[in-house]
Amino acid sequence: MAKAPIPEELEVGKIITLTPERVAHGGSFVARAHDRVIFVRHTAIGEKVRARITGVGAKNRFFFADTVEVLEPSEHRRPHPWAPADALAQESPLGGMEFGHLNPDYQRELKTQVVREQLERLGGLPADFALLRLLRVEALSEEDLGWRTRVHFAVSPAGRVAMHPHSSAETREVEDFPLAHETLRKLNLSQLDLTGAVRLDATVSSTGEILLVFAVSTGESVESVARKITEQAGSAWGDFTAQNITLHFTEERVGGRRRGQRQPDLTRGAQSERPTVTEELDADGARLRWKVGAGGFWQIHPQAPAALTATVAEMLELSAGETVFDLYSGAGLFTAMAAAEVGAKGSVLAVEGSAVTSANARENFASGLARIKESKKTPVEVVRSDVGAHLEKILPSVASGRLGRPSAVILDPSREGAGKKVMEQCNQLAPSRIVYVACDPAALGRDTGYLRQMGWEITALRAFDMYPNTHHVETVALFEKR
Ligand SMILES: C[S@@+](CC[C@H](N)C(=O)[O-])C[C@H]1O[C@@H](n2cnc3c(N)ncnc32)[C@H](O)[C@@H]1O
User: Fold this and answer.
1) Is 426 a residue of the active site?
2) Which of its termini does the chain have fewer beta carbons within 10 Å around, N or C?
3) Res 272: pLDDT
């Protein structure tokens, strides 16, 4: 299709008046002007706004815009809790709080609409599918700020913590970030001079441990950057080791550099032997624990581990003796739940691709940390592999009966989803049920489409507001063969 001419009114930088009709996946709203679709951010359905055109889509068929003024506000609008991300206060607001201008209940209503639309459009579910009509994105807590236990900061050229405007590499210094957990906010990270570092990943665990990982620019000495930042940490927080704070310094990863060329990592403070944090969760009166290393994956909302494990357990209704595959297992959150439910006569296979996180998972079960009385003797195998590659390897053994066929499969892939090949492999495994935990409803929609073509149907569906004030949403779907 040839490129359509761009109407003069829709040239980048022009300001137009829009009234959005519906919410789109990805944090924008769909409006129409000059016979074109405009994806406009920082607004709400039905309100009248003036918006600046910020970009042109493929073949000039659609456009992007940011609200600059509200002419007729939505009843769901509120003052944005953080000026740097407020489109009415900034020409290019910081990303990461794109729904902050909307009441939390309305944010959840929008996310509900997005999950429904993705499952209809990409998953092929009929619009009157009862579970879609009944779906309501559920709040995890009353508080919509202070939930991020993991925050990734950029570092500005002047060496201060910074964040990026939406879809931009520009770094803008920040004094504070209200989505960050209170413990991280109290550190006042903006006081540190991080010259020589390019990124800071800050974590606080459910046990109160703090891990600050500094990626040091390849041109800098890790040792000298570590010394300067460690000195400042001592001045800012006193005896930071006693406060369970660990500083970890690692050379920035740049593609193409061989292992031997990298400078060694350095760790200072509480966990100076190995930079990890401990996460914990109460389960039936006992306590499950997981070690998660620097760069390893853990859910970022404090209530997410409890809500997700309870939902997956409720949907699967596992019995003693079952075999479960936990694919994209991370450090073993669902593995631990499944191991407790299936007991010594069952088994769990956990497949995780990241070197750090799969090593964490292996150790969490080998050491017994992630086991309770009921799972003390459950055979748990942790495999570091790409999920598709591992399933390809073991499918012949499962088919011949040399390896146990799983009765239940748990899938919790990253944002891109599992994809057609993995969904076909899961179908070949022939479990009686599959639970899919999705952080992207579009990926869930696509993978639902593949599963439905193979005769599976969604038989339970829930969604959680695990990322308040952003457009992100977590969905959990149970699939059973029709
Ligand atoms: C959303 S996390 C879920 C982890 C875990 N279920 C939890 O809740 O803590 C997804 C995990 O999948 C891993 N992953 C992503 N793509 C993968 C792949 N192709 N094969 C194996 N693991 C992968 C990531 O490293 C990450 O740990």
Assistant:
1) no
2) N
3) 73
